[in-house]
Every structure is written in structure tokens, then in C-alpha cells.
Amino acid sequence: MHRADATCWRRWQSLxxxxxxxxxxxxxxxxxxxxxxxDEIKAAFLYNFIKFVEWPDAAFHTDNPxxxxxxxxxxxxxxxxxxxxxxxxxxxxxxxxxxxxLDEVEACHVLFVPRSRRADLRAVLARVSxxxxxxxxxxxxxxxxxxxxxxxxxxxxxRFEINLGAARAxxxxxxxxxxxxxxxxxxxxxxxx
Length: 193
What we know:
The chain has about 190 residues and is α/β, with parallel strands linked by helices. It has one domain: Rossmann fold (3-Layer(aba) Sandwich), CATH 3.40.50. About 35% of the residues lie in helices and about 25% in strands. The protein has 6 helices and 10 strands; from the N terminus they run ααββαβββαβββαβαβ. Strand 7 and strand 8 form a beta hairpin. It starts with a helix and ends in a 7-residue tail after the last strand.
């Protein structure tokens, strides 16, 4: 493929990704509460996020091909994430695990931290700091405090922030396509306290 053709192809891929993610975001405004809750929309965002993250090969065991999403604590967003169980991402089936408390958190590829567990954020991040775990949290300040992707609300829309430094420190690669759609990208591992 010629360089010009490759550049054109990358632009088309970027455009298609943008349309897909913007479509999910703008759908929030048009869906009624009966059709989809904010929690179901957050689950859809999470599903799309993980499509654009690369884990190191060592993060997956040859005897277990699952991509494990851990959910810390209880909550309606965690309940909505149950709909992802069994779906495929890059050829890997999603397995969901719930952790009642921080001491129960075990190996997973993605850890969802609900707003109700924000007081424990430092301890949560310390618990997974030596592992390639994508941390996704609900609410502003999550990415600024060291989480990797924060789901935020702007009016009736769900938006997201990314802490690229934290992802790189965990040996995760977030696609530049996803980075371009974030409302804010933190470059340092931890921007605030």
C-alpha cells in the first residue's frame, strides 16, 4: 500500500471511530429514560473504550482467553455492566467479576470504580498499581487523581477524560483515536490529589 493510500485509510478509520463514539454520546440526548438509563449508556461507553486499548501479551494467560472486567462494590452502573458478560472484544469473551471490598480485588483487565468508592481511590489505585489494569471511574476528578478513564456528565451528555500518563505507567496503550475524542487528556500519571 502506498503511503498516500495508508494515510487516507487511517483518516477513514479515524472518521468511522469518531462517528461511532459521537453517535453513542449524542444518543444520550434522544433516548428517553425508558429506552436506556445513564448507567446503560456508561456500560456502552466502557465496552467501546476497551476496544481501543491494548494490553501487553503477558496480561493474558494462554489457558484463559477472557478479558475480565472487575466491578468494585455495588451500584446501578455495575448492574448495567452485567449486559457485557460474554460479549467479544478483539476475539476475547468478557468475563465480569464483582468485588465487594478492596481486599477482594484480584486479577482483572479492567476495574470499574463507581462514584460510591471515590473515598477509597488512592487505596484502589495502589492495589492495582503493579498490574496492567485499565481503571475506569464514574465522575469528575477520577482521571485527575490517577484513574485512567473518567466518565463525566456535561448536561445530558456523558463525556470522558483520559489520564494517559497513568495508562502508560500500567503498560497499556490507548488508541490515539480515542484520545482525540476525550474532553481532557492528562499527560502526567497523577495530576491532582
